[in-house]
Amino acid sequence: MAADHELRAAAVVMVVVVVLGMVTTSSAHVFVGAYNTTCPNAEDIVYKEMTSILAKSPELAGPVLRLFSVDCFVGGCEGSILLDSTPGNKAEKDSPLNKGVKGYEVVDAIKAKLDAACPGIVSCADTLALAARDVVRLTKGPYIPLPTGRRDGNSSNAADVAANSPAPGATVNDLLTIFAKFNFTAKDLAVLSGAHTIGKAHCSAFSTRLYSNSSSNGGPTLDANYTTALRGQCKVGDVDTLVDLDPPTPTTFDTDYYKQVAAQRGLLATDAALLLNADTKAYVLRQANATSSDEFFADFIVSFVNMSKIGVLTHSHGEIRHKCSAVNPPSPPSSAAASMLATSLAGSLLFLLAGVLMLLF
Ligand code: HEM
């Protein structure tokens, strides 16, 4: 009786250990150097490719950095932004909010190089993450030691975009609410907005600020001289022209963005809105007056790495896409898998037979 009890207790402990083991191994975990053994040159390949792409087309820096943030904030950093729509499913990239998102071909080009060196090893999600990290370094920002090991998701839904991503007209409270969903603070918001130190925005993203006064559009104040200059760039109804987010140094990752925002020259309403919350305002003013970029760079590394961990898929979750714009086709069972299945079926049959024989005799 006692032995029976002990046996049952041991079985319970074993089940708990197995379940705990399953939970631990399936929980999201990315780490620096995840490809060190499986594709040792992966990070070098991305850096080399990104260097040559930006040497030829420096205007792709902003789009690639933005592409990564757009991926992470909707459903996690699992490459869902890269998926094309399919019959019956409108993907994230076709959401009206993502109309201006670009840089997909950069990810495809880098992924092709990675697959040539290590076929089927590096995910599209990691390709994008590493490319974005290298954009920061190549525009004179900090080197970000980036955890890798993300796998690719297999769904992408345009309807998720509006619900999860910060819209251009969002107030600072809207932004803080969205960030809080990811456990991000006001400081993270001020720091990550600093990515607008490079790149451009379409007139459509901010023109309401130019042609209606701040009390009617509910937005923060825009410097009068700057407004006049911007009206020269964006005529009424122009939605396509691109304007620098940080005109003094549009291709350099630095603290000038904060100087612009502090001087009421933040281009997007969401940039300017950083002055409407005490914490984000304090950060903007501190960086605007900083004599070095050290603090911003150190903060950006932390917030960027945290952003890069949102909703990652690891271990047995997700897949390594062959093509970044489409999920992998279902694969027929491999011969190894088929023989394992056959062995386990044969084992079960034998077990069943033994049971029947025992009952009979
Ligand atoms: C805080 C919430 C954010 C909002 C509301 C926001 C909004 C926007 C908008 C409206 C644009 C202009 C898009 C266009 O007109 O084509 C833009 C551009 C950009 N965003 Fe953000 N963004 C946010 C956070 C981020 C983050 C976290 C990053 C990266 C870490 C980022 C990086 C960029 C870059 C680099 C561009 C320039 C893109 C280009 O040159 O094509 N943004 N953002």
Features:
Peroxidase_pln, mainly alpha, oxidoreductase, globular, metal ion binding, peroxidase, Peroxidase, domain 1, 361 residues
Quickly describe the structure:
The protein is mainly α and 361 residues long.
What does this structure look like?
This protein is mostly helical. It has one domain: Peroxidase, domain 1, CATH 1.10.520. The chain contains 16 helices and 4 strands. A two-stranded antiparallel ribbon has the order 1-2. It has a two-stranded antiparallel ribbon with strand order 3-4. The protein is globular and about 95 Å long. The relative contact order is 0.14. About 5% of the residues have low confidence. The site of protoporphyrin IX containing FE has 24 residues, from helix 3, helix 8 and strand 3. The site of protoporphyrin IX containing FE (HEM) has 24 residues, from helix 3, helix 8 and strand 3. It is found in: Secreted. It comes from Oryza glaberrima (African rice).
